[in-house]
Amino acid sequence: MAKKPGTGRGPEYVLFNVTYEDGSQRSNRRVTTDEAAGGDAVVKAALEQQDRDIAEKSGKPPLAIKGIVRVG
Fold this sequence. Notes:
33% of the residues lie in helices and 31% in strands. It has 72 residues and is of the alpha+beta class.
Protein backbone atom coordinates (compact mmCIF):
# COMPACT_ATOMS: atom_id res chain seq x y z
CA MET A 1 0.00 0.00 0.00
CA ALA A 2 1.33 3.46 -0.88
CA LYS A 3 2.16 6.01 1.79
CA LYS A 4 -0.26 8.83 2.29
CA PRO A 5 1.04 12.22 1.19
CA GLY A 6 2.11 14.51 3.99
CA THR A 7 3.01 11.74 6.43
CA GLY A 8 6.71 12.57 6.35
CA ARG A 9 8.24 13.49 9.64
CA GLY A 10 8.83 17.18 10.14
CA PRO A 11 10.73 18.84 12.94
CA GLU A 12 10.07 17.59 16.45
CA TYR A 13 9.38 20.02 19.27
CA VAL A 14 9.86 20.38 23.01
CA LEU A 15 7.32 22.39 24.99
CA PHE A 16 8.14 25.06 27.58
CA ASN A 17 6.13 27.19 29.98
CA VAL A 18 7.40 30.77 29.98
CA THR A 19 7.07 33.27 32.84
CA TYR A 20 7.53 36.96 32.07
CA GLU A 21 8.80 39.83 34.23
CA ASP A 22 5.27 41.23 34.63
CA GLY A 23 4.11 37.91 36.15
CA SER A 24 2.19 36.67 33.13
CA GLN A 25 2.72 33.14 31.85
CA ARG A 26 2.44 31.41 28.47
CA SER A 27 2.07 27.65 28.35
CA ASN A 28 3.30 25.09 25.83
CA ARG A 29 5.63 27.31 23.81
CA ARG A 30 7.33 25.18 21.14
CA VAL A 31 11.07 24.99 20.48
CA THR A 32 12.70 22.47 18.14
CA THR A 33 14.53 19.56 19.71
CA ASP A 34 17.78 20.80 18.13
CA GLU A 35 17.42 24.16 19.89
CA ALA A 36 16.41 22.49 23.16
CA ALA A 37 19.56 20.35 23.04
CA GLY A 38 21.60 23.58 23.04
CA GLY A 39 20.63 24.35 26.62
CA ASP A 40 18.65 27.01 28.45
CA ALA A 41 20.43 29.96 26.83
CA VAL A 42 19.61 28.72 23.33
CA VAL A 43 15.99 27.97 24.30
CA LYS A 44 15.59 31.42 25.86
CA ALA A 45 17.06 33.07 22.74
CA ALA A 46 14.67 31.10 20.49
CA LEU A 47 11.67 32.08 22.62
CA GLU A 48 12.78 35.72 22.69
CA GLN A 49 13.00 35.68 18.88
CA GLN A 50 9.48 34.24 18.69
CA ASP A 51 8.30 37.02 21.04
CA ARG A 52 9.98 39.70 18.88
CA ASP A 53 8.26 38.31 15.78
CA ILE A 54 4.88 38.30 17.54
CA ALA A 55 5.45 41.82 18.91
CA GLU A 56 6.34 43.12 15.46
CA LYS A 57 3.10 41.76 14.01
CA SER A 58 0.93 42.95 16.91
CA GLY A 59 2.55 46.36 17.35
CA LYS A 60 3.08 45.76 21.07
CA PRO A 61 6.53 45.64 22.71
CA PRO A 62 7.83 42.17 23.67
CA LEU A 63 7.89 41.20 27.33
CA ALA A 64 11.12 40.26 29.11
CA ILE A 65 11.37 36.56 29.97
CA LYS A 66 11.87 35.83 33.68
CA GLY A 67 12.01 32.03 33.55
CA ILE A 68 11.40 28.94 31.46
CA VAL A 69 10.33 25.44 32.54
CA ARG A 70 10.27 22.39 30.30
CA VAL A 71 6.87 20.70 30.10
CA GLY A 72 6.75 16.96 30.75
